[in-house]
Amino acid sequence: MGKYIKESKELLNHIGGKENISAVSHCATRMRFVLNDQSLASKEEIEKLKIVKGTFTQAGQFQVIVGNEVAEFYNDFIEVAGVDGVSKDVAKDAAKTNMSLLQRIMANLAEIFSPLIPAIIVGGLILGFRNIIGDIKFFEDGTKSLIEISQFWAGTHSFLWLIGEAIFHFLPVGITWSITKKMGTTQILGIVLGLTLVSPQLLNAYAVSSGQVPPVWDFGFAQVQMIGYQAQVIPAILAGFVLVYLERLARKISPASISMIIVPFCALIPTVLIAHIVLGPVGWAIGSWISTVVYAGLTSSFGWLFAGIFGFGYAPLVITGLHHMTNAIDLQLMAEVGGTSLWPMIALSNIAQGSAVLAMIYLHRKNEEEKQVSIPACISAYLGVTEPALFGINLKYGFPFIAGMIGSSVAGIISVSSNVMANSIGIGGIPGILSIQPKSMGMFAVAMVVAIIVPFVLTIVIGKKKLKL
Description:
The mean pLDDT is 83. This protein has helices spanning 5-14, 43-48, 70-81, 88-95, 101-113, 117-134, 146-149, 151-168, 171-183, 187-198, 205-209, 234-253, 259-299, 303-320, 325-337, 343-363, 368-382, 387-397, 399-417, 441-466, and strands at 21-26, 30-35, 54-58, 61-65, 216-218, 223-225. 65% of the residues lie in helices and 6% in strands. It folds into three domains: 5-99, Gyrase A, domain 2, CATH 3.30.1360; 116-294, no CATH class; 298-466.
């Protein structure tokens, strides 16, 4: 007899029974259901179960927060329900039938970037660390940095660029690989395609931006510029999807006996040619336009308004899953202007939502059961993962969520008005300061304090009235 048989039976009943389950899987802390009719699931009754720490619907999936015991609970549930569990990828595919076209596009974009996030985060931390030891003049009365007085740290600074360059300059390789992986086509072809976009024989994208004239491939009747697309996001995305569809087409028309030869040849060569003639220039133009518009919005006389709206609205974006689209904008800003002022606001939003939870911990300091959810959620938000805070606490009560949005908005206005820039995407929340450019660290710290104090105070004041404490 499993440990969670009783709770599993209750959950099955409140979720609409076996017949209402199209697919079920689990992740690190949550049960993920694709339901035939989501209206049959009783959120109120489910959230009364002692093991359940909250529920929410995202990307077409009804998700039940269980916590670290989710794997054991999942095994008991599928035994009680008599259903077969599926992988997260299969559940995601099934869930897309419940999503709008825009949601499906955003979900696909998120799934492309998700496998890249660990590398991008470590890359951001590396660049941030290099800033601290290489750019901040701590020594000899503020005249020298650590690398200027220590050969060891100078060597470390130089060595770490090897990793930073691999992550950010060669990002198109990761993107084209991730697209082929997600779409179920040949991943090595995706890697090769990405390499052709950043090959050393091409003129570096940064050199092109500075005005250098690129060499050309001369075909006699036409010439193609030999331009690299280092750190460019949109050209890689466009090229990746062209490769996928050309491979699928080639596989359909090719006899099975020679498909090993025909399919890669007919998919890869045309894609590389199209990428350098059409997709690269067009993608670069689109990316430059997006980054220019966003950067202009952030640096204009109305930048404070843009920041206030973005800071206020980012947490709701997390709920819908649309927040993943900011990754592409951040990466494009990094490539175009040498940093991003968008990502610091994301880190501040994480902090603000965590601070609202911190206030709820204080308000419920005598409620041990509530603290089992709120304390881990607060820590998680302060480290950049806000879903437990949002779905487990803040949305449950409502007013902490709004307080966090207000605090994020105010902090965002301070950040943008002070021209705070990050070198790259990094770990969100409080550790996010490591990714901030040295000259901006002081004002970012001020914005962090605001993101902590404003939501905390608002939540306490409103909570004492709402909860009648």
